[in-house]
Amino acid sequence: MIHYILRRTLIAIPTLLVISFIIFAILDLAPNDPTGNLPMTVPPEVRAKIRSSLGLDEPMHIRFGLWLVQFCVNEPLNILYEGFGISIGDAENRTRIISWSTRSPVVDLIIQRTPQTLWVVGLSYLFGILIAIPIGIVSAYRQYSWFDQVGTFISMVGFSVPTFFTGMVAIIIFSVQLRWFPMIYDTTLEVDSWQNFVSQVKQMIMPVAVLALYNASQLSRFMRASILDNLNLDYVRTARSKGLSERVVLLIHVLRNSLIPVVTVIALGVPAVFGGAIITEQVFKVNGIGQLVYHRSAGATICPWSTPWHLSLPFSS
After folding, report:
1. How, if at all, do strands 299-302 and 97-99 pair?
2. CA-CA distance, 314 to 303, in Å (whole number)?
3. Which end of the chain is less packed: N or C, by CB atoms within 10 Å?
4. Domain with CATH 1.10.3720.10 in the chain
5. Cα-based distances in Å from 84 to 70, 119, 190, 275
6. pTM for this model (two decimals)
7. What is the pLDDT of residues 102-126, one digit of tens each?
């Protein structure tokens, strides 16, 4: 097993390098660069100096090499230093990626916004999993029953209707009409008392519920289909012929094999938790990474005072 994981990891490294180079090349061939956002009144000689300071006049392979070093070496070390206080090397003078729009280090912005995203998006993903698995099991075992019909209808609605619509409906019903929950997420709230804890829970209910409905709608369909694929296999009939109860057959034998593809789908969705939910965070004004991407979608640059010449990085802050 260790050799298999090691082999797959070694194969993934050149694959990721090729993919990153292709993306870098596509963005480099785009008809614009960060200096395109400058006002038209900027003189050409000043614009040329800015392009030179950003490293845009260097060959593409050199800029890709600098980006690779920055992304794979410097930024992980910056995250360790800024997020956990672990200093490796010269942390104070290490090259930083600076947001083109805010002129502040991108790592600092991500560290500031990550807790809010993990609270809202992370909890919604967790609740979505806890809701989807039992619903998928019961729907598959009682196929075409009223529970399965209702679960299928809710899943299709939750998956088909966009989160900005369900979020607005939740705000209109529970904030405007019933006034149960706050309309806007207060990111400045400090949980230092029981009253503030209750306020924090109340303001998290709607965004977490909206995202949990969307996640559970997808996962419950995967769970149902996986259970149905295993219910009629030979090993299930063998287990029943041995006199095992339906509970043991379903929860021990069928569920164990059915969770394999579902766990894969769940694992593939975990990176999205750290990327934030752009639309939902915008609707409820959650000051997380998703809203940061929405408002600060601009190219980032190497900090001008860190190196003698610099590089425009082809991703957003």
Report:
1. antiparallel
2. 15
3. N
4. 112-295
5. 19, 19, 21, 20
6. 0.70
7. 777 777 778 877 788 888 888 888 8
The answer, yes or no, to whether residue 143 has pLDDT greater than 60, is yes
The tokens 């490796």 sit on which residue?
Answer: 88
* Three-state DSSP class for residue 97: strand
Under CATH, what is the fold of the domain 112-295?
MetI-like fold (1.10.3720)
d(Cα 218, Cα 268) in Å, to the nearest integer? 13
d(CA 158, CA 179): 24
Taking only Cα atoms into account, the Rg of the chain, rounded to an integer number of angstroms, comes to 25
Which pairs from 147-150 meet CB under 8 Å and 24+ separation? Answer: 148/224
Contact (CB, 8 A) for 216 and 128: yes
Q: In the structure encoding, which two tokens stand for residue 108, read together?
A: 């600092």
CA–CA separation, 5 vs 7, rounded Å?
Answer: 5
pLDDT score for 295:
59
Phi-psi region of 89 (alpha: psi -120 to 50; beta: other; left: phi over 0): left
Answer whether 302's CB lies under 8 Å from 310's CB.
yes
- What is the DSSP annotation of 154-169? HHHHHHHS-HHHHHHH
Buried b (16+ CB within 10 A) or exposed e, 275-313: ebbbbbbbbbebbbbbbbbeebeebbbbeeeeeeebbbb
One-letter amino acid identity for 139?
Answer: S
CA 183 to mean position of chain CA atoms: 24
